[in-house]
Amino acid sequence: MNVLVLAxxxxxxxxxxxERGLTYEGLFEILKINPETVVALWEGHPVPxxxxxxxxxxxxxxxxxxx
Length: 67
Prior knowledge:
- With 67 residues, this protein is mainly beta.
- The chain has a single domain (2-62), classed as Ubiquitin-like (UB roll), CATH 3.10.20.
- The protein has one helix and five strands; from the N terminus they run ββαβββ.
- It has one helix spanning 24-31, and strands spanning 2-7, 13-17, 38-42, 45-46, 56-62.
- It has a five-stranded mixed β-sheet, with no helix packed on it.
- The protein is globular.
């Protein structure tokens, strides 16, 4: 299954092949991204990290906080 990953920071745009049954958390591990620092948007909709990756466009947005 192909997933197009658009992300801010280290990964700018990348098309990767992933196996079925992979969760978004597993995808973050492959991409070496801490899941606590990002939000994943699949086709523009937020997805939980324990959901299975679907083919299509995935945007990863880094969360910035200060305080």
